[in-house]
Design goal:
The structure is a homodimer of 202-residue chains. Chain A has 202 residues and is α/β, with parallel strands linked by helices. Helices cover 36% and strands 20% of the residues of chain A. In chain A, a hairpin with a 2-residue loop joins β10 and β11. In chain A, α1 runs parallel beside α6 and α6 packs across α7. Chains A and B meet through α1, β4 and α8 of A and α1, β4 and α8 of B.
Chain lengths: 202, 202
Amino acid sequence: MRTLTTLLFPGFELLDVFGPLEMFGLLQDEFKLVMAAEEAGPVPSRQGPATEIDVSFYELAEVDILLVPGGMGTRREVDNARLIGQLSAISETCRQVLSVCTGSALLAKAGILDGRKATTNKMAFHWVEEQGPKVLWQRQARWVEDGKFFTSSGISAGIDMSLAVIAHLHGEERAEEVARIAEYEWHREAGWDPFAKVHGLV
Amino acid sequence: MRTLTTLLFPGFELLDVFGPLEMFGLLQDEFKLVMAAEEAGPVPSRQGPATEIDVSFYELAEVDILLVPGGMGTRREVDNARLIGQLSAISETCRQVLSVCTGSALLAKAGILDGRKATTNKMAFHWVEEQGPKVLWQRQARWVEDGKFFTSSGISAGIDMSLAVIAHLHGEERAEEVARIAEYEWHREAGWDPFAKVHGLV
């Protein structure tokens, strides 16, 4: 059983969080879902609906997998030195670090993607690039795997990446089973990314 | 501005709720998202993470669009006479009623789908059918539109249906724009449903 901890902050994007948690959550015997944030109490999403948290982001016992979503809240959190510092510390010790959408801006700001390949939301690409000039940003990719880091494109791309992480940890067949249960057509090629063109990046 | 009210109950399926709310939530000027449940306080999903509610399901002021998700909690709620009664009353007055996955079991139990075409989760199809023998259940459909009712297949299908509802209300172009922002490949054909075969229904 692995602990999958999601970092929430005000203005997180709903599907960035709950697309992945749906997929991991379908394997209840494999992943324990933990919701963390800076402060206690419900955390409002960018769209409004608020999620309860289980634990302070500064008092995490053990993190096997860390999930960092995006959303408008990242515009503020890139300047939150305490949060960025803790992100850096946790990333050192955990097995996998996942980001969806502009969540990679927070990882980039923490410096932990320096010299690594990563991707992000295709509409916010240039802003995210600025948060980590030493990151090897990939313009066309549904998601990018580099060492223990999995970074995905915008919003819905987190679902495809999560299935890739499940395949990485538990085999392709298990990931396909999860996709079937969710009645989801998995884009299993990390290079599948029509939105890079749609949003003028290639 | 339309009010989109989501009915939550313990054991709701995460993506059934937040897939649609991501899509509607991207049109912040068009839809006001309201979370309702029987009781105050956070409502735990089937996967664990809990969502705050805004209002009691029995004290709703105005509902333009009602969203009813599925999840294991529906197995209990089909026998909740008070909830089913209120569902029936609200469905009478609101403009659109949407269900995702086994959410249609609750609508079926309320009798409001009798004589109408509807669909549901492809793995739980037979159980849902039993909740409404007079419903014209469609085995192969990503979603079904019949009058003001939009019912979708399992879990991820709610995203495609929501885009169809947006297209219905605001035009195809607006729905395409939302899909592009979410970097989502919309299955825009209501008849697209490979999962009916995968799960042995056709």
